[in-house]
Records
---
Amino acid sequence: MTSPRSSTPASGPSQDLAPSTAPASATPTAARPAAGPPLRDVSQITPRRKTRKPSAIAARVALYAALIVAAAFLLVPFFWMVSSSLKNNLDVFSVPVRWIPEAFQWHNYADIWVQADMATWLKNTLILSVVVTCLQVLTGSFAAYGFSRIRFPGRDVLFLCYIATIAVPWQAYMIPQFLIMSRVGLVNTLWAMIVLQAFGAFGVFLMKQFFETVPEELSESARVDGLSEYGIYWRIMLPLSVPAIASLALLTFVNTWNDYLGPLIYLRPRNLFTIQLGLKTFQADPQGSSLDALVMTGSVLSVLPIAIIFLLGQRYFVEGIATTGLKG
Amino acid sequence: MSATTATTPTAKSRKNALRRRNTLLGWSFILPNFIGFALITMVPIVALFYISFTDWNAFGNAGWVGFENYADLFGNRNFRIALVNTFYYAIPHILLTGVISLALAVLLNRKMRGIAFFRTAAFFPYITSIVAIAIVWNLLFSPDYGPINQILGVFGVDNPPGWTTSADWSMPAVIIVGTWREMGYYMLLFLAGLQTIPHELYEAATLDGAGKWKQFLHITWPGLRPTTFFIMVMLTIGSFKVFDLILVMTDGGPGTSTLVISQYIYQQGIENNKFGYSSAAAVVLFFICLAVTLVQFAVNRRNER
């Protein structure tokens, strides 16, 4: 599984980096043996030697301090979310700020299922995310095979159309899209969200990028052995592409799970609400605003599956993003 | 095809047959995706321009009205406010996110303890849903007893801002959250770019006695140019289309202080069913994104020379 992946991460935006971009001053010395300080003039070293070690330590301390501040900035909102989800509704805001609840209100995690329609929301979201992910991976990789392995007139123009649409903000064409969906009768059905999310150009692009790193000779020899193009796709390309498929599947799943605008437009009936739409409605409800802790509990539950998926499949997220750099 | 002029008729027809076979074969692979793609993306984009010249509304009669929608649009006070607000969000957000994510990437592009954890932490906000994030930040920003204003109080700020409840501070609040959410993502892209710069360049520069800042200026920055260009395009388009973050955090308010173009399109199109009029607003958004992208292409090309 590992063989072709090694060449993907850098194939994104920055493959035409040439060493020629280096400053002229650096090039002559590049030929020197890389043995570091001992080769330098003594006159240069001596005055520096004394200060170097403490200053290096100071730099390192400063670096860590900067990173800790940045990490705190990044994570404190999540910490506060979890902590508030275990407070009494009236204790969410207190003076001074209480970072750890006085008494842990674990029952919030049971109450939320009664107070809000969590079960329905999660069920709908799960159905959508799974179906969309499967469809996106299948149709995306299938089309990518056509784009990368079969030569026919009009192919490159068509692919250009795909690429061009990635740069067009969805907000610009959501109105005509809504009109088409109404005409086809998909509005206020889960199908609307499936159609909306499952046929994106993104998956085609990501898979094509990957397929192009697989050596052509592999399919060539399979062809000689009498395998059809469909056979090559299914028996050779897909098994080789597991890392890319994992990236695409995880990104698609998370994207569908987190989508708010799509459901807002296409899923008006309450029984079709997704977790994001439900959570927002619950929070905006006049009753919800006095239930701050429960709203936080709901938020934690909505983030939890994504957090688990992210921690387990981190590598694939990073690779998928480094390969394409395209999303959202 | 004309390169093989000396082909016999049979070879030619065989070649045509092969081409036809390949066309069918290729389309058979692409079609399942293409049907959905055409329906939800290609056709809507093309239709957008046509609809923007009609008075299509809830009653369905789509008559040609020429540039009337556009004239109405620019005569509309709220649209002009939305236009200004979009830039007011985009410019600080692009600068802040770009600078912070680049700085973080340069800091993190080394081997040290805890780096892996930090990369994970930095990326986490980006994959969390905007709804959950917006709700949490809204509570953090609460004017009276919110943690942020209490922390500001500790630092001696007597009159802390009202954040999302104040017309002056709602946009800065949204910009802070937007930057917080996206910096990890762009940091990852910068890191991918940094890893393509050959390490020997830095070693050589160190031997020459070039300081860290000089190294950044003469090795890192030029080496990152393709990455930076790509990131700027993505970041710019992303900023100009900002929508869900604002919708959940402030709903465009208080008043119209955070109303942006995307939300205006949504209000006029989906809520008021003024399809023709809202499409005209969408065309404006389309051309803003296109123009900004083209400018960046031009700048990038000039820098390459």
---
Amino acid sequence: MAKQRVDVAGNAASFIDQDDIHEPFHDKNLWAARMKRDAAARAVPEWEDLRTIASLIKEHTLTHLDHYLEMFEANAIKRGAKVYWARDAAEHNQQLWEILSARNIDAIIKSKSMLQEECGMTAFLENRGISVTESDLGERIQQLDNQPPSHIVMPAIHKTPADIAAIFANAIGTDPNNTDPHYLNEAMRADARKRFLKAGAGMTGVNFAIAETGSFVVCTNEGNADIGASVPPIHIASMGIEKLLPKVSDLGIFIRLLSRSALGTLATQYTSHFSGPRKGGELHIIITDNGRSKRLGLDDFWHSLKCIRCGACMNTCPVYRRSGGLAYGATYSGPIGIILDPTFDESKYSELPYHSTLCGSCSEVCPVKIDISDQILKWRKVMAAKKYLPISRRLAFGAAGKVFEHPTLFHGAETAASAAMKVTPHFLLYNRGLNPWGRHRELPHFAKQTFREWYLQYKQQDNEEPQQ
Amino acid sequence: MKVALFIPCYIDAIYPEAGIATYELLERFGLEVEYPLNQTCCGQPMANEGDQENSAAAEQLFVENFSGYEYIIGPAGSCVKHVRHHLDAIPQTTAVREVRTRTYELVEFLYDILKVEAFPWAYFRYKASLHNSCSSIRGLHIAQPSEHMAPYYNKSEELLKMVEGLDLVPLDRPDECCGFGGTFCVTDEAVSARMGLDKVHDYSRQGAEYVISPDMSCLMHQQGIARKAGIDMKFIHIAQVLNGGPF
């Protein structure tokens, strides 16, 4: 088990050390997104109220989820959609396979869906001879490079234009030296259009599902979900059970929050409502659990189900910006990934909660007020209690705990300046084999006299003075 | 008023001058300051690791040392944040709850409790940047976090504005985390160091000669980064500036 544990710190170090271009570029672009988000949020006087209301609506919906799911199903069926239930990724993929194979479909296009990523859907379909084309530009870049998305909203944000030019040159024969985004975009558009027209079905995710109407909303900036939903005769949507909102009137709050939080824009370019199949077409909705109901039962972590996948926590996270999303080795990266991924596999993702300084900015930007930072600390408690921590770390903290427990041991260790390096705040330096403090940092100098020694001397002088 | 002084372990051993400045500053305001001699650590390093088992004894000792005081003052935001928000590895008795609510970080104690209006003895003729730690900003609310949409305030800045001669220069990313993060700085060394270097470069761009912070632990990390990178910059605790030394 330990062998497959994701070494997120090591992966992040590789991202930083690869060259002097990628990490600064990544950090700068995502910080710019955070700044745009701040400006967009600041322009809405009721911003913080919107966050509170959105959080309350999600909490309400999640605590009455069975009710709203059944309401949604009944209303969606009334509108002519076919509704399927999937307990996990395997069931989701199987339902999908049955829909496609019954219709002899051998090519589909798909827009972004984190749920489909969770399900490993593309690999599943390709193994069965179905070609899958990503219609979102960033996702297509990632697909051609055989990588999962590194960001929820900006899947290829860790790549530079030069990286993309190289990938496109290889995949669709563009000029490898031309890194002009316009040129690259146009070339990909020409290549993708043909695939769009040939596809037997279009797959989308679901951003918001409305219980009272049985309709759902998909938000994109490229209109690619709309092509998937309107060009091929069949539209299949993958929907997580947590995507529900009770009423249409709730939607406005979330639409206002989503794109402002994600990219600092007022709304996504396309906010498309789907209410039943179009004339002569078919609409299939696969409502999928895949661990969500289990998460709903976790007292400390169920709030993570409020997430609307905006990526604001990733943009603001100083650690994510320096790591790149692929470092997390999971479907979800960044702060939200740290609290979601362990619900899929505690051992594999046991290091993730430590890939954070607990600075708390994620909790403050979250448009639905998920207590992300607090949950990260709570996951550490889970990992420590279940002994997932590497033994060296556990022993170090055990030793520190003993020293701090006994004042005499502590002060004894502390006054012997060099020996003190092995204890006190130098818990930092416990792991001598590792000793990474010094690679980029000079060691702090130890004071000749501790505060405690100064205080005792000072008090003694104080006491002596009256006698003189 | 009798108050207890909480000197975190790393200040005791590495930055005693920050502790001395805090002590002297509180005495200047007429407080009777006691330093409980058996204090060691508040338990934060272990608790932040998620290690409740090993933080319990330190937390218990902290409560024993500081019970009975009206105010407990520590010149360290992250330690105070731990005491106030996360000291929960031990049963929450009345004594524990009292100690937790009575523990203050120095800036908030000066600003909110003493409501200090002047530091007539302080003089600091330098260009400096302020580093409020993430724990102080988002945990103790000593400043408005930049991502939260509410009116701006910054208690450390307000106090520093009362110091004659001090030229506070703003940063490009005012409350971006510096990457210290306790154990994070060694377990996640590459990211931590990059964040620290970005922070130090921000100070450099603004022409800061000094970096002033209510959290010496962040500065210990930043100072190490600056020294290794050959950047000539000084890092001091806010108490030293407000008290006029020792430097």
